[in-house]
Structures are given as structure tokens and as C-alpha cells.
Amino acid sequence: MTNPLYDTLFGRHSGRKDAFLHLGTSTLSYADFLTRGQGFAAEITALGLQAGDRLAVQIDKSPDALAVYAACAQLGVIFLPLNTAYTPVEVAYFVENSGARLFLCRPADEAALAPVAQAAGAMLRSLGAKGEGSFAQAADTRTPLKAVTPRQGDDLAAFLYTSGTTGRSKGAMLSQDNLLSNARVLADFWQFTDQDVLLHALPIFHTHGLFVGTNITLVVGGSMIFQPGFNVDALIDAMPAATTLMGVPTFYTRLLSHPRFTRDLTRHMRLFVSGSAPLLAETHRQFEALTGHRILERYGMTETNMNTSNPYKGERRAGTVGMALPGVELKVTDPTTGADLPQGEIGLIEVRGPNVFKGYWQMPEKTAEELRPDGFFITGDLGVIDGDGYVSIVGRNKDLIIAGGYNIYPKEIETLLDDQPGVVESAVIGVPHPDFGESPVAIVVAEKPGIAVADLHAALEKSLAKFKLPREIFLVPDLPRNTMGKVQKNLLRDMYARGDFKG
Ligand code: MLC
Ligand code: AMP
Q1: What is the enclosing helix (H) or strand (E) of 290?
Q2: Ligand nearest to the CA of 379
Q3: Domains (ranges, CATH) in the chain?
Q4: Cystine design at 49: which of 3, 53, 398, 463 (Cβ 3.0–4.6 Å)?
Q5: 193 CA to middle of ligand 1, Å?
Q6: What is the pLDDT of residues 187-237, one digit of tens each?
Q7: Best mutation site among 178, 208, 210, 276 for ligand 2, i.e. most ligand atoms within 8 A of its Cβ?
Q8: First to last CA, the chain
């Protein structure tokens, strides 16, 4: 093979006239999709990008957005998708840090992002969901590029940025083999075939929607009902034509509370997969009681793709994330000493396998903190393995909030709050949220009474994506600390639950 990722996911399907994407009333064939990707590859080449260069995108979900991914794979250009909710302040860091040569944005954002691209020394072009924008227009004038740039499995295919509990976001470097090995294992483990039609309503800028949903479909040559975002009515309307669904827990709780979601609607479905955040055992049970289907929960990360899965055949155990996937080693270690812990004890989950990333872009010291010399990656999740090998995630050793499947790092919000005039210090905690599972709340110590909470909200809105904004901000005289001086967030969470904080 000259380029394993391109050949396996895309090139193999050339000439196929059957549907790759179902788009409401129309379909896009594999052949037409690949030609679009080759047109984009021609334009990217004309702009001077070469294998190993980074191409950042902050564009709406569309067939064209996927075609950019295909073009990058064809050329060996590193694909760097960004959450469309990020503000220009957030995006500036990713474009600059990655050294992206080309940055594709939504046509409406071009003016706002021009200074960002200029400061980072990246070319800026636009691509809209309906095939509009300067990049698409230029690509339309090109002859589709057939040549595939030779690559090897160890070459980098994508960067996904993931925040840390301290410091700035880190670019997780994923190789062709990282992506391919995981896609093949999952397709096999979950018994995907070319007859599968995946109901795809996840974003394609994260592991779940891009590398799990899309790559599995491409590996088997199946098709996707490709929805621009999550809309519960649209999902229900499309379900009769689908065979499988992948979603974050919020998908399932929203489906369960919808009157049109019935046993009849799901009778023909082959598989429901949940991940990216904990699925409550209660949701699992309610889903089975209503539909007869047992949701298959799996566990993964940006740095590792998927690590564990409940079985396809065999017991899908509620409240667990199943066993290590074939080829993945998983162990539980002592958070302080790093020593292996026996089965049944709670500790840090570590994983090793072909799925584990190559390190953080230009951050060797951060890489060394989390990736051991023997190849085990320290996930930061706390877990336990039961006597049957099922892994349960019982907590996190990292200060992280997951809202509706999006990660929110308290440190990022606290740093911004602490910089505001009149703020002495702050602590951001995750509190239960009925729809998103968790959501952030800020507790702020002010220099003197009278600081306007509305001003704090307004300051955060200027730089943070909406999903990161604290639902509430409370002013308190001081924060509880342990003898080491560390803020005791568990106490803050208890105080919040008791209703101790008043707005
Ligand atoms: C949207 N909003 C959120 C939010 N999503 N707030 C908190 N958490 C979220 N996840 C806010 C918006 O800013 C907006 O605010 C309001 O909610 C409604 O916006 P929307 O666009 O209509 O949201 P909605 O369609 O309802 O989206 C909810 C969602 C979406 C759950 C469908 O967040 C989603 O698709 N999540 C999936 C994330 C994902 O793919 N994670 C995988 C990461 S990979 P306002 O103020 O304007 O009303 C990974 C590895 C692994 O973790 O294991 O998979
Ligand atoms: P991300 O950095 O966005 O890839 O998020 C990865 C994190 O999501 C993991 O480290 C876990 O904390 C969490 N996660 C993913 N899947 C699950 C799951 N099934 N149950 C609980 N947590 C999960």
C-alpha cells in the first residue's frame, strides 16, 4: 500500500456509485464524494501544502467537511479539526501552536478570523456547508488530483487538541496506524458490514464522530445518514432507515424523554453505542425497558481512540465500559507509586496498544508526564476491574468536567476569572445537570463585596466557547482548603448540593 489510511478508508471505494452519505432527500455516492476530495486535494496542493503540513478547519459539519479530511489523508497533510463553538480567542492558540499553513473557516467568520490567521502566518480560506466559500470556489476550477502521496503507518494523520488540568491545550498527534488499527478493531468487534447505515448526528471535530463513527463506516464501506447536528426529531424521523446509532449519553436521555421514541421505532435497529461520558446505569435500564435494546457502552479518549467496549455478543453490563478491546492492554495502577494494582482495587487506568497516540505536539515534557517509556498511557481516569474483566470508571484523577460529551477544564475558567478586577481567587466545579450530565459552576472570592457577577459572566463570554460558560457564579468570603493549602472541591460540591451558595 502506498498510503494505508487513504487506501483503506477512501481509495478502495473509488468508482462505487452507491451511497456513502444519505442527506435528507438526496444521497452522495462514494465516487462523487471521492472526486470532491480529489478536487480539494488539487487546491491544497496548489496552495503549496506538502505531506506533514497542518491544515486546521473550523467549519460546519457537511459532506465537504469530510472531503477535506479525505484530501488531507490523500496528501499526507495533517488534519486538525476544531470545535465550531470555539471563539476566535481560543482558535488563535490552536492555529498558532500547530503551525497550520492553511486554515479553513466558515464564510461568515472570515473577517473575524483574518487577524488570527495573519498573526499565526497561516493562509485563510473559507468553506461553507453548502459548498460555498473561497476554498470551494477555487477547488471547483481544478482538475481533481488522482495521485496519492506515499505514506507509512507511522506517519502522522491528525492533531486533536485536548486541554490539560494545567497549562495550555496540547495537540495530540495521531498516526495513520493509530486511526486504522482502532477503526478495524471496532468494526470487527461491533460487527459492522457494508450493509450498515449509521445514524450520524455527532460533530466531526472530535474522536467520537470522526474516528469512531466515520472511520468504521469507511473501513467496511457502509453508509451514513449524515445529519448536520443533533436534533431529536430529525433523529427519530431518520431512524427507520438506519441500522446503528452512536451518541453521547445526552442523545439517549433526550430520546427517552421524547413521546415518539418507541419500541416499534427501534425494533429493526442492530446496535446503539454510547460513549464520551458516563452513561448512567439508570439510563441503560430505562432504554432496555422501553426498547428491548441494551446500549453498548465503550470508553475512549482523544489520545487513545477507543480502549474498552462492552461485548457485542454477551452481557452488556450497565454502569461498566466493558473489557479492553483486542490489541489493547489495560491495567489499574496506584496513583502515587505507579505500581500495578490487583483486580478489584481502584486506581489509575493505564492503556497501551497500537491505538495510543505519538505524544503531544512540541511538548516533550507533557508527553513524558503521561506516556510512560514502556508505552503505557496514563489516562487520568480512576477505575476498577471486576472478576469478569469488566472495567468501571469510578472517577477522575484530573480536574475535568464533561458536559454533553464536551470536555471543560476548570483551570481554564479559573485563570480567566482570577484575572478579573476585584477577584481574589476562584474555583470551578462540576455539578449534576439533567441534560448534559455535568455542568460548570464558579465559586469566586471577591476583594470586597459588590463585585458584579454579571461583569464576570460578560468577561468569560468574550473568550470562552458557550458550552464552557459557568451556569452560575457565586461569591463567597473564602474557599475551603486542606492542610496542604489545596482547594477542596469535593467540599464545594457538597456545599452546592446542600444549597449553601446563594446567588
Ligand atoms: C451545546 N450547549 C452545551 C453543549 N452543547 N452546553 C453544555 N454542554 C454541551 N455539550 C449549549 C450551547 O452553547 C447553547 O447555548 C445551547 O446549549 C444549545 O445549543 P445547541 O447547539 O442547540 O446544542 P445541542 O444541539 O442541544 O447540543 C447538545 C449535544 C452536543 C449534546 C447534542 O453538545 C453534542 O453533540 N455533543 C457531543 C460532543 C462529542 O461529540 N463528544 C465526543 C468527544 S470525543 P445557548 O446559550 O446558546 O442556549 C471523546 C472521546 C470518546 O470524548 O470517548 O468519545
Ligand atoms: P476527551 O479528552 O474528549 O477524549 O475525553 C476523554 C475522557 O472522556 C476520558 O478520559 C473519560 O474521562 C471520558 N469518557 C469517555 N468515555 C467514557 C465512558 N464511557 N464513561 C465515562 N467516561 C468516559
Answers
A1: helix 281-291
A2: 2
A3: 4-11+29-152 (3.40.50.980), 400-497 (3.30.300.30)
A4: 53
A5: 29
A6: 999 999 999 999 999 999 999 999 999 999 999 999 999 999 999 999 999
A7: 276
A8: 62
